[in-house]
Amino acid sequence: MIQGPREVFTPHRKIPLTVTDGMTPVEFFNSVANLRNLAEENGLLRTPEDFLLYRKLIGHTLEFDTSIILDTSQTILDPLGRPVRRDQLSKHDKTVWSRMSQIIYDYMLETYPDPDEALVLCGEASLDPTWPLNKPGVPSIRMIHNHFMVFPKKELENATLADPNNPNLSDSGHNDLFLEILSKVYLDFLDVLDLEVLSPISSDQSQLSLTGYPKGLPSWEVVGGQKQLANPRFWYEYDEVLKGFLDFYRTFFALVSSRGAPVPAEAHFPDQVENVLLFSNDFSKAAKHVRDRITQDPQFANAIRWRPAYKQLLYRDCRGRLIVTISQNSVGNAITELLGVVVKRSEDTEAYAKAEPALVEKLLEVRRRLVAADLGYPLSAPSWPEDTFVPPPKGT
Q: Which 8-state DSSP code applies to residue 342?
């Protein structure tokens, strides 16, 4: 079996929406009106805190594919005023978020127990105002989301090899900056994290044998495996990984923006920032390199995300271990691409219809478990007016 990134093709149904005259599709799909339509057409469950579980109609995989978003679009109309990261949530909201994630991930591992048969992952990302506003395809949803997916290993094995030079496979080249140039100082800085459940592992140990990804990302094994997902300590440490990443990101791009920038005021680990990052010649050298390039290369400058943007993954590797990793979030790249899976979507109603009943039944089972745990109330949608799947009318 040749190791390398894979390219899979995932069909979807025709989206039954008409874009409002005078708006681009991106503008319309990220509008408050369309987000309301998302809940009405594909919503599975909503919590009193406005966490929305929904079916990804244009998704990554037909095996299992769902997302939770904090849907504040109806209560906070200013897109820049919405929470977009876990560290912006209240303690109560973070607890609800973690319990929902645990139940969904437990279901995936229970349904797909063999690591040789299925790639099981969830990926959280910030969708926030750090996107360059004039970049094509920029989302304006501006809300935290967690995406849960399962890919059959056989499908990945039979998929064509993806172009290894696809910039999205390396976060548009930013992995080279963070992890090849700054790898040592990055890992030295992350030593400050107070971890008991998460144990650091080398990047070559965290790679999937099929794809060879992730490449060079800092990674941690969940010591104790699946049972730790029910341990609040795991979710505390999951937060610590994010806090460390945010400090590193903020400090680096503050230094890129302004030579001699001080420790960021919002730093979680200010002493480590000052003594490890700002005292590192390699760190300052890399910041100068990026600063110089920004002044000369407008295309490169347009791709910079000045505020923290991340993707944090929890996935099961080929040995059955649960692995946590985190990366900066570039424009265009998808959660799956951190693991070397490039998804191409195509409209194919017939192919989607064949897989839809089994997919929806799994989503409804997850919903039942969340409702039973007092984590929200079920929503009706055309494909599940109650608690069973109803196929759409022919031709839709």
A: E
Residue type, 154: K
Mean pLDDT of the chain: 88
CA distances from 359 to 56, 231, 352, 356, 388 (A): 11, 29, 10, 5, 12
Q: Domain tally for the chain? A: 1
Question: Is residue 73 pLDDT above 90, yes or no?
Answer: no
Residue 390 lies in a domain: no
In this prediction, residue 383 carries a pLDDT of: 93
Phi-psi region of 332 (alpha: psi -120 to 50; beta: other; left: phi over 0): left
Q: Which of 126-130, 158-162, 351-355 has the lowest mean pLDDT?
A: 126-130
- Classify strands 341-347 and 6-12 as parallel, antiparallel or unpaired: parallel
312-338 pLDDT tens trace: 999 999 999 999 999 887 655 678 988
Alpha helix segments (H runs only) across the chain: 25-29, 32-42, 91-111, 153-158, 174-175, 183-190, 203-206, 232-257, 270-272, 281-296, 298-302, 349-372
Question: CA dihedral defined by 54, 81, 90, 193, rounded to 10 degrees?
Answer: 100
What one-letter code names the amino acid at 389? F
Give the domain range for residue 144. 6-378
φ, ψ at 332 (rounded to 5°):
105, -35
197, 223 contact by CB (below 8 A): yes
Higher-confidence residue of 30 and 259: namely 259
Does any domain span residue 384?
no
CA distances to 21, 34, 297, 351, 393 from 15, in Å: 17, 12, 38, 15, 14
Pairing of strands 198-201, 219-222: antiparallel
Q: Does the pLDDT at position 128 exceed 60?
A: no
Q: Is residue 266 part of a domain?
A: yes
Q: What are the DSSP calls for 73-95, one per residue?
A: TTT---GGGS--SGGGS-HHHHH
Residue 257 lies in a domain: yes
Q: In this structure, are strands 43-46 and 51-55 parallel, antiparallel, or unpaired? A: antiparallel
Averaged pLDDT, 101-124: 97
**Residues 96, 49 contacting (CB under 8 angstroms):** yes
- pLDDT, mean of residues 240-263: 94
Residues 6+ apart with CB under 8 A from 358: none
Give the pair of three-digit tokens for residue 245.
Answer: 């990443």
